[in-house]
Backbone:
């Protein structure tokens, strides 16, 4: 369990790198899935186009949604978007930054699928074989004698090697459509690469301070949510431990002594005191429910207050400094400064 816990903490601390790795694995999986997938064109005019276009569009949509499902920031984004304003205002730029970050990672696998499909050319051949002009590939007089319906059925069977009789026509038409499909694939890759380049190049042209601010607070929201979950888990563990301890104390003197013996032997008195401290003064179910409700509805404002001890130490420090300055102004010096001067001259 400790190893799994350490692995889970490592993945949480390196979530961005982990998600980039997941997106890369999904992209490779999409390419391997397509290569292992046996493409079978219906070779019917009514279904060729629908089947081929569905093969190009539906799997990328599935990969895109899967990228959203596997990204933990989706729940953070939804929670931040739907929570009441309360004491903390919501910044739309932070929500846009988180959404754009999630979308960019989720688009990797669909882009790979579409590019691999276009490079292969089978689905493109199945979709657009009925739109061919056969006269471009030679003098096939038998096609002119066919009706429009028979001609469409003949063209729809071009992707199917076993159903098409004229192999020369099929090979020529297949090569022609596959060349167009590969050209579309390269244009798609060029367009995606150019878009990514524009995003990378244009981003520094805007105010860098605003971008850093947005990035900082988006990371803060994610870390705050994780820290709140860890604190709640730690409080629940301490609450349950103290509750069970009090339960056994109220059973009987024998059970009480036995429990104290085991606790003193296993955990020690320091652990009992630490469990009491971890409760943070919240020792009732209604109080804990109120804390959780207020965290959602009245999130505290991001303006930290200094501790009273820090304020007192600063007052003491300022008082000492003022006293020192006043001593110098009146022609007197404090003992510490006299010792420093004495030590200084003794060294010389």
Residues:
């Amino acid at each position: 369990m400790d190893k799994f816990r350490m692995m889970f903490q490592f993945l949480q601390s390196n979530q961005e790198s982990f998600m980039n790795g997941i997106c890369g694995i999904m992209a490779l999986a999409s390419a391997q899935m397509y290569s292992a997938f046996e493409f079978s064109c219906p070779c019917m005019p009514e279904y060729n186009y629908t089947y081929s276009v569905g093969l190009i569009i539906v799997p990328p949509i599935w990969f895109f949604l899967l990228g959203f499902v596997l990204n933990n920031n989706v729940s953070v984004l939804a929670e931040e978007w739907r929570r009441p304003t309360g004491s903390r205002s919501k910044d739309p730029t932070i929500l846009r930054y988180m959404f754009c970050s999630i979308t960019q990672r989720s688009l990797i696998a669909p882009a790979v699928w579409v590019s691999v499909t276009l490079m292969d050319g089978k689905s493109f051949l199945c979709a657009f074989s009925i739109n061919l002009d056969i006269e471009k590939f030679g003098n096939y007089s038998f096609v002119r004698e066919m009706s429009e319906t028979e001609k469409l059925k003949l063209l729809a069977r071009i992707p199917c090697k076993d159903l098409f009789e004229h192999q020369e026509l099929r090979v020529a038409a297949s090569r022609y459509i596959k060349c167009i499909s590969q050209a579309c694939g390269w244009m798609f890759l060029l367009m995606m690469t150019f878009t990514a380049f524009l995003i990378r190049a244009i981003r520094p042209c805007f105010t860098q301070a605003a971008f850093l601010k947005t990035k900082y607070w988006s990371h803060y929201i994610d870390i705050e949510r994780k820290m709140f979950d860890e604190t709640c888990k730690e409080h629940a563990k301490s609450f349950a431990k103290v509750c069970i301890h009090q339960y056994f104390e109220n059973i009987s003197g024998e059970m009480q002594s036995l429990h104290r013996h085991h606790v003193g032997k296993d955990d020690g008195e320091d652990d009992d005191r630490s469990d009491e401290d971890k409760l943070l003064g919240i020792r009732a179910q209604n109080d804990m429910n109120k804390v959780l409700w207020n965290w959602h509805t009245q999130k505290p404002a991001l303006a930290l207050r200094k501790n009273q001890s820090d304020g007192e130490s600063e007052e003491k420090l300022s008082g000492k400094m003022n006293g020192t300055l006043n001593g110098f102004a009146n022609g007197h010096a404090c003992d510490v400064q006299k010792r420093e001067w004495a030590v200084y001259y003794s060294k010389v």
About this structure: Residues 263-272, 320-348 have pLDDT under 50 and may be disordered. The first helix runs from residue 2 to 13. The two ends are 64 Å apart (CA to CA).
